[in-house]
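[User] Could I get a sequence and structure tokens?

[Assistant]
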Amino acid sequence: MLKKIWLFIIILSFSISLVAQETSEEYCTLSDVTVEQDTLIATLAGDGELTSTPLEIVTGDVAQNVNVRSLPSRSGLVVAVIESGSTAEIVGRDQSSEWLRVNDEDGGWVFADLVSNLSAEIADLPVIGNSNAVIPTLLEYTPAEESDCIPYIHLETTEPSQLIIGDKTYVLSENTSLVVVNSDVVVAHILAGDIKVLVGNEIFYIPAGAKLTQETVDDVVAYEAVPYETDEIVALGLPETIAIAEPIAQTDLDAFIAEASFVPTPAPVTTNNNGNNAESTETAAPSSPNRVVVSFAYSIGITSVPGGGQPTVIGEVQPGTAGTILESQFVGCCTFYYVQFDNGQLGWAEASFFRPE
């Protein structure tokens, strides 16, 4: 049973499963097959099926009261409590597998070590991005068995959304337009807005005018964010009503990634996970420029330590508050900033709460 403590506006989240197939080099045209949700429209290019089904719910036992937080981090605000002796319903995990996504409309996360006797292996759960979102919906895409063209899906969002496509988690900004390609080379073209793509332990931050590519060498898949070419977008045959950004220059793309609020970060050197305390010894220099603004839709908790141990919430900062990064540290699963805010507040918060000023 969940005891409500904090209320949040819901952000929709979606999941798609793509099946690769052999095709020619010509792209298919958009069809009439469309799946529409509250904040996202998915349109199929080519023949096939596009259906919506819920994710599998995994259960586990809770032996003590467990906080449900807005993000997979102890700096996330507590949105609910699962009471001792209750059964927890789980639908996903974070990249580190240290936090589990709860089947709760508040969009919360619980520490994995506090949930036992799961009905499925944690490694088999889908990876969900660091966002307080409603339960993901699985949009299953099955292309036609035979096709003379390369199928793809065009996605449009009106509000921030999440997509799980195969082994990749897409976190989309407001008013984003992108094409997810059923190809062994191109993963996606970003036509408008910007996205984060989580692939295993790698994170890519990609703006409009760029694409994510993949290349397999000796069974190892390498991903890269690069500018797309104009003729690539023309080849997709998108309607003129779909806004398409000009290709971004590589230097501008590099600068965008360097200044992004959620940048690629390496795994921590060491991780100690004793008694519900996740700590890392790795410290990284803050990105430049180091001026940031709270981009989360609600007030965020500022803590005395960066996520690990038992951080004390020493205050709250409202959306739009600016500050200067004094230090950056990777702890457990995420990057944390030590920020001196313009309102005088000083403390730690997760990097995903911020955007460059």
Q: What stands out?
A: The two ends are 41 Å apart (CA to CA).
